[in-house]
């Protein structure tokens, strides 16, 4: 075939020369040994029914659709590594690179079958592996065993998740069943094709076509469902913090090489990434490795600068474990191993803000927003003492002023879990305004950022950026800093560097 007759899509296959003969097809399907035994039931499976019930009871009689999302093209026929949408991961317990293209449906029970313990049946639609005599086995680079390894069979997926399983090819028909009598909602931003399918089915079945608000309500509920973590989730959070702690040890150990490298920030980034991949699924977000004045660019992820002796290095990094829960930790380290007096002064002020915020978070009846307010009182007081604030700390703290926020423009806390900024679609009354409750997991991360071109601060402060970020779990008795074992005080940081950065 000449190039002119081939579509551009067909041309993508020009580099392959797959045998087409019947002899080959039957030969490649023969004489393969037993596959290894499939997975055991996952530890998370026991927690799923309670999650389904808590969500389902807000949408009685409605079909709820949670797509995993699909592979995203990185370039041409090369995709990004897959990571499922967090609502899907939460409701199926699937993690790692499972399960592109899959869809979880919470199928509503009718009035006869509905019980206080079960409002919906959870059905996972996915593409199970095919036999080794199928063309898929050797010819399908998306699903084939020769290309992506042996995927799970339907039975194995049922064992792993405890969910009912259906083939993804039956999704359309099953979503369409009884529509009109049954309403349907979908998490809208997970998979454009599934959202479009649901939209088409709505129109075909006479449901109102403007479903945006309905879908947004489902996304909000799925996000709010994660505000209180169960026991399994808390133990995964602890694992994520432990892998992150090990990653920070690698960071500190990489300092001698980073200090001599023309892009030392990349050395730091790479050291953490290696640990996160070795021990977990990878990063929960792109690492911020910010030397010197780069720390004053809050989302510095370019990480292409050198480490300069006498300056500070801010590293904000989190490992995501195989279940997809992530930590979110920041440490600020002196490049040459010792803080200067001014650096230590700023560092200690930020540390005091962290500690006071935790103390407030430990008190009963405290609201999420009170944690930020607590940190800000400490920050404003120090800025006043250093003669930097144009008014007193007290005056600065009133809502009409807020001068101190010039040097700490971000929030102090956010929920943390499957997403680094977890529960982001939750209503304000359940997030900022909510009273802290057992099972909540969030960060405390105040900072002070003195840009090198900031003419409102004395010269000795310019170019210093400090953030200290820890991960907190609310327990029955207060607030626990689960990242406490990653050195935090200025003395402990110096000792850490003396021990590992040789
Ligand atoms: N690493 C992003 C954050 O701290 O919120
Ligand atoms: Mn954070
Ligand atoms: Mn962070």
From TrEMBL:
<dbReference type="GO" id="GO:0030145">
    <property type="term" value="F:manganese ion binding"/>
</dbReference>
<feature type="coiled-coil region">
    <location>
        <begin position="204"/>
        <end position="231"/>
    </location>
</feature>
<dbReference type="Pfam" id="PF05195">
    <property type="entry name" value="AMP_N"/>
</dbReference>
<dbReference type="InterPro" id="IPR029149">
    <property type="entry name" value="Creatin/AminoP/Spt16_N"/>
</dbReference>
<dbReference type="InterPro" id="IPR000994">
    <property type="entry name" value="Pept_M24"/>
</dbReference>
<dbReference type="GO" id="GO:0070006">
    <property type="term" value="F:metalloaminopeptidase activity"/>
</dbReference>
<feature type="region of interest" description="Disordered">
    <location>
        <begin position="1"/>
        <end position="24"/>
    </location>
</feature>
<dbReference type="GO" id="GO:0006508">
    <property type="term" value="P:proteolysis"/>
</dbReference>
<dbReference type="InterPro" id="IPR007865">
    <property type="entry name" value="Aminopep_P_N"/>
</dbReference>
<feature type="domain" description="Aminopeptidase P N-terminal">
    <location>
        <begin position="43"/>
        <end position="195"/>
    </location>
</feature>
<keyword id="KW-0378">Hydrolase</keyword>
<keyword id="KW-0175">Coiled coil</keyword>
<dbReference type="GO" id="GO:0005829">
    <property type="term" value="C:cytosol"/>
</dbReference>
<dbReference type="InterPro" id="IPR036005">
    <property type="entry name" value="Creatinase/aminopeptidase-like"/>
</dbReference>
<comment type="similarity">
    <text>Belongs to the peptidase M24B family.</text>
</comment>
<dbReference type="InterPro" id="IPR001131">
    <property type="entry name" value="Peptidase_M24B_aminopep-P_CS"/>
</dbReference>
<protein>
    <recommendedName>
        <fullName>Xaa-Pro aminopeptidase</fullName>
        <ecNumber>3.4.11.9</ecNumber>
    </recommendedName>
</protein>
<dbReference type="Pfam" id="PF00557">
    <property type="entry name" value="Peptidase_M24"/>
</dbReference>
<keyword id="KW-0479">Metal-binding</keyword>
<keyword id="KW-0464">Manganese</keyword>
<dbReference type="InterPro" id="IPR052433">
    <property type="entry name" value="X-Pro_dipept-like"/>
</dbReference>
<feature type="compositionally biased region" description="Basic and acidic residues">
    <location>
        <begin position="1"/>
        <end position="13"/>
    </location>
</feature>
């Amino acid at each position: 075939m000449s190039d002119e007759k081939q579509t551009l899509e067909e041309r993508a296959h020009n580099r392959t020369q797959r045998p087409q003969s019947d002899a080959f097809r039957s030969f490649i399907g023969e004489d393969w040994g037993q596959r290894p035994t499939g997975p055991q039931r996952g530890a998370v499976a026991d927690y799923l029914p309670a999650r389904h019930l808590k969500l389902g009871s807000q949408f009685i009689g409605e079909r709820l659709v949670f797509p995993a999302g699909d592979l995203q093209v990185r370039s041409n026929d090369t995709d990004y590594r897959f990571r499922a949408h967090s609502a899907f991961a939460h409701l199926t317990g699937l993690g790692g690179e499972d399960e592109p293209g899959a869809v979880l449906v919470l199928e509503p029970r009718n009035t006869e079958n509905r019980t206080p313990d079960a409002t919906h049946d959870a059905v996972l639609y996915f593409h199970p592996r095919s036999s080794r005599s199928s063309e898929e086995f050797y010819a399908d680079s998306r699903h084939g065993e020769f290309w992506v390894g042996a995927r799970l069979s339907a039975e194995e997926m049922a064992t792993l998740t405890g969910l009912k399983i259906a083939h993804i090819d039956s999704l359309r028909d099953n979503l369409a069943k009884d529509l009109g009598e049954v309403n349907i909602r979908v998490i809208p931003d997970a998979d454009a094709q599934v959202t479009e399918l649901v939209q088409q089915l709505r129109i075909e079945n006479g449901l109102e076509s403007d479903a945006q608000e309905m879908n947004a309500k489902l996304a909000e509920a799925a996000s709010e469902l994660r505000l209180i973590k169960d026991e399994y989730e808390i133990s995964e959070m602890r694992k994520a913090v432990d892998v992150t702690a090990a990653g920070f040890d690698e960071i500190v150990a990489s300092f001698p090489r980073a200090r001599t490298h023309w892009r030392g920030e990349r050395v730091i980034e790479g050291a953490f990434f290696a640990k996160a991949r070795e021990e977990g699924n990878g990063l929960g977000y792109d690492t911020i490795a910010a030397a010197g004045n780069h720390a004053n660019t809050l989302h510095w992820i370019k990480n292409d600068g050198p480490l300069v002796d006498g300056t500070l290095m801010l590293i904000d990094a989190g490992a995501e474990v195989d279940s997809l829960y992530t930590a979110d930790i920041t440490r600020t380290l002196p490049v040459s191993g010792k803080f200067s007096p001014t650096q230590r002064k700023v560092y200690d002020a930020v540390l005091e803000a962290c500690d006071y915020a935790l103390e407030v978070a430990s008190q009963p009846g405290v609201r999420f927003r009170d944690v930020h307010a607590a940190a800000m009182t400490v920050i404003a007081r120090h800025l006043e003492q250093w003669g930097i604030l144009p008014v007193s700390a007290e005056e600065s703290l009133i809502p009409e002023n807020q001068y101190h926020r010039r040097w700490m423009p971000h929030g102090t806390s956010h929920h943390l879990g499957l997403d680094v900024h977890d529960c982001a679609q939750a209503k304000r009354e359940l997030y900022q305004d909510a009273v802290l409750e057992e099972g909540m997991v969030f960060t405390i991360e105040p900072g002070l950022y003195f840009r090198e071109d900031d003419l409102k601060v004395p010269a000795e402060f310019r170019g210093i950026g400090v953030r200290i970020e820890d991960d907190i779990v609310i327990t029955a008795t207060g607030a626990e800093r689960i990242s406490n074992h990653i050195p935090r005080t200025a003395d402990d940081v110096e000792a850490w560097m003396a021990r590992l950065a040789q």
